[in-house]
Amino acid sequence: MSYHVIHFDEIDSTNSYLKNSYKLLDNFTFVTAAYQSKGKGRNNRAWSSNKGENLMFSFLIKDTSLLKKYSALSILSAVEVAKSLEAYNFKDVSIKWPNDVLIGDKKVCGILLEGQILEYIVIGIGLNVNQKVFPIDLRRPATSLSLEAKKDFDINVLERKLFDNIVTSFKNINNNDFMTYLQSHNYLLNKRVKTIVNGETFIGEVVGMDYNFNLQIRANDMLLHIDSGEIEIL
Ligand code: BTN
């Protein structure tokens, strides 16, 4: 499998590292860290994780044909994480749009995309593996593989399988197979939600996801296609 891995015992953020060094590095360079002192989450939140207990990594995309598929990359990453968890026999795995991975109703993995349009993309993934205690102020209850399975996991083994799967699926991105998986693992499907579009609040029911990976919400006889933003479950 053609990719590189750089490991840090400690770093500010694997996403930041790749953003600062992308010019010197190859497509499919993976950066892992046992600890991040300034881990970043979506919407300018922090992402904190106990040292050595979880899988935290980022990888670099520079390939032009992949860069053109920006929105597919984020969702495809979530699909690969979810599939890997199912391969480990986890049940009730789903994807909460845009790219959280859940077990039951709890978040087990978050994904943060950063970059410059058509120049490079960094995809950062934080998967809770062996951590057992999480801060109670999290907006959504978190879980980890060890909390769910009541045993610990070898992070290195998990990591290599996931990297292999990500690289393979990114190389085959054109076959669109992951759309079917996505539709059947859409956590928000049929849920009543609230969202704000251009300052206007909409309440409606999630009816699916379109081929541009927008969330489809039926609200007041309108079909909204949401491409970004926060979704609140009612
Ligand atoms: C989220 O808010 O759900 C996204 C969390 C993304 C966390 C990962 S951990 C590895 C990579 N480096 C970071 O600083 N963030 C991402």
The helix tally amounts to 6
Overall average residue pLDDT: 94
Give the end-to-end Cα distance, rounded to a whole number of Å. Answer: 44 Å
As a whole number of angstroms, the C-alpha radius of gyration is 17 Å
Shape designation: globular
Order of helices and strands: EHEEHHEEEEHHHEEEEE
Give an account of the 3D structure.
The model has no long low-confidence stretch (mean pLDDT 94). Helices cover 25% and strands 34% of the residues. 33% of the residues are buried. The chain has a 7-stranded mixed β-sheet, with helices on both faces. Strands 11-10-9-8-12 form a 5-stranded antiparallel β-sheet, with no helix packed on it. The protein has 6 helices and 12 strands. The protein is α+β, with helices and mostly antiparallel strands. The longest helix is centred in the middle third of the chain and has 18 residues, at 70-87. The chain has helices at 14-21, 64-67, 70-87, 145-149, 155-171, 178-184; strands at residues 4-11, 29-36, 55-61, 93-96, 100-103, 106-116, 120-127, 192-197, 200-209, 215-219, 222-226, 231-233. The structure holds biotin. Residues 13-15, 36, 39-42, 45, 47, 56-58, 100, 110-112, 124-126 line the site of biotin (BTN). Biotin (BTN) binds next to helix 1, strand 3, strand 6 and strand 7.
